[in-house]
Design goal:
The protein has helices at 8-21, 27-34, 38-51, 71-81, 92-103, 109-119, 187-200, 223-227, 235-243, 257-266, 269-276, 282-300, 320-323, 406-422, 432-437; strands spanning 146-153, 163-170, 176-182, 206-209, 246-249, 325-331, 337-340, 343-347, 360-366, 371-375, 378-380, 382-384. By secondary structure, it is of the alpha+beta class.
Length: 438
């Protein structure tokens, strides 16, 4: 039986063609996913029908290239150009010329360079990449763009455990809008940051951040997402998208230099001021932050070019539990329950309410850890559904449920056990008259 090895591109092509054969995709959709023409999709489909997976592998796969160097010639070149060879200090072009003139070995410059580096005869020369950056002007109005980040550091200088300081700074004014200590840079910490800023100031137009997976999903698009023109999002990324906030991922720390310089300042000034204040716990450090932020903003914040703030009001009556929480979709069972983390929840519906059976509802987990259930934007009341513990085989008591008093059950238990042993583990039965007399 022949083994067929497919590379990732061929595996994706096989997946799409199998879906096409099953009728889940049309020719046009398959062509869009594979970025080929519809005519080529039909050609691939015919090949796939005739040869299955073998037709997806290129015909030259596994064959030796016609222009490949022989093993003996490769060894000769390595000996001549290696550390102990006569051409050890020749550059690649010079060594190529010497091999052709003195040894009748015709080889290209790039091939020789690659061969010497692959065999370790030459070490590749590292060139330091010169990065030239241009200075970006501040945005015009407060609230147009925030820069957010987390800074893990020994903020208490050994007086307490290490913490991570979460912060946000306005790009136009340089004003610190949020600071709070957490144990780690976590999803809940970013959600609390967003909720605090949006409720206190308003919704910003854009947020500049790094490429942390909490803020940007590393997953690739599935075929279903690609057809629906959707991109995979992290929970925090989804929250920003639902608020209408533009999420901008920085390609380097220098790109979000304002918040990076803020960490340098805080690791100098805040560190020493907390030392003077005798701060030793996370709670005391968080209580110290508001006064420090006020002094810092008075000294270092600048006036924006446009005095009209760009904050977007969150709106009265906004459901904070729905907006600033993680979300998972669950399908409603026929008994109007959903399963969350191994536990079932019963959705409380009135007689006049429409049935949710078979529909997908959103299960939101708030920052505080409580569960909320939503059908679109409509909140659904629910309560935990206690399922009876499963009964193991052999644990069922034949005397239970007959209404027999406990003292009579205790008196009959030795007789029942003896009867069970004698009759080969058959359950004991109670005469009708005995039950009536009880």
């Amino acid at each position: 039986m022949r083994t067929i090895t497919l590379n990732p591109k061929q595996q994706r092509r096989a997946d799409v063609l199998s879906r096409l054969e099953a009728g889940n995709l049309t020719d046009a959709e398959a062509a869009c996913v594979l970025n080929v023409s519809v005519r080529h999709i039909r050609r691939l489909r015919n090949i796939y029908k005739e040869t299955s997976l073998e037709g997806l592998v290129h015909g030259n796969s596994g064959r030796t290239p016609a222009n490949q160097l022989e093993a003996t010639v490769r060894e000769q070149i390595v000996d001549l150009c290696g550390p102990d060879g006569p051409y050890h200090d020749f550059n690649v072009c010079h060594a190529r010329d010497m091999l052709k003139e003195n040894h009748a070995i015709a080889i290209g410059r790039s091939t020789l360079d690659r061969l010497l580096k692959e065999t370790g005869a030459r070490t590749p020369r590292r060139k330091k990449k010169v990065v030239r950056r241009s200075r970006r002007e501040r945005l015009l109005a407060e609230g147009q763009m925030l820069q957010i980040d987390g800074s893990p550091h020994d903020w208490l200088e050994g007086r307490g455990k290490s913490m991570c300081l979460m912060g946000a700074i306005d790009d136009a004014t340089g004003k610190i809008l949020y600071l709070r200590f957490h144990e780690t840079e976590s999803q809940a910490a970013y959600l609390l940051l967003l909720r605090s800023i949006c409720t206190e100031h308003g919704v910003p137009m854009s947020i500049y951040h790094d490429k942390h997976t909490i803020l940007r999903s590393p997953k690739e698009q599935t075929i279903e997402e690609e057809l629906a023109n959707e991109k995979p999002m992290s929970q925090v990324q989804r929250v920003m998208d639902s608020l209408g906030v533009e999420s901008i991922a920085a390609h380097s720390p220098q790109a979000k230099g304002r918040v990076e310089r803020l960490w340098r300042t805080l690791q100098d000034r805040l560190l020493k001021e907390m030392r003077l204040a005798g701060v030793t716990t996370m709670e005391a450090a968080n209580a110290f932050l508001p006064g420090f932020m006020e002094r810092h903003n008075e000294q270092r914040a600048v006036q924006p070019a446009d005095t009209n703030p760009a904050w977007i009001p969150l709106g009265e009556g906004a459901d904070l539990d729905r907006l600033f929480s993680t979300r998972e979709l669950r399908t409603v069972s026929p008994d109007h329950t959903v399963s969350v983390s191994g536990k079932r929840w019963l959705l409380l519906r009135g007689k006049a309410d429409t049935s949710l059976v078979g529909r997908k509802i959103a299960v939101h987990v708030t920052i505080e850890g409580s569960l909320c259930f939503y059908d679109g934007k409509e909140r659904i009341e629910a309560r935990p559904f206690a399922e009876p513990a499963p009964t193991k085989p052999g644990q069922h008591d034949a005397l239970a449920g007959l209404g027999i008093p406990k003292n009579l059950l205790d008196a009959l238990k030795p007789q029942k056990d003896a009867f069970t042993r004698f009759r080969g583990h058959k359950p004991a039965t109670i005469p009708t008259e005995m039950t009536a007399n009880a």
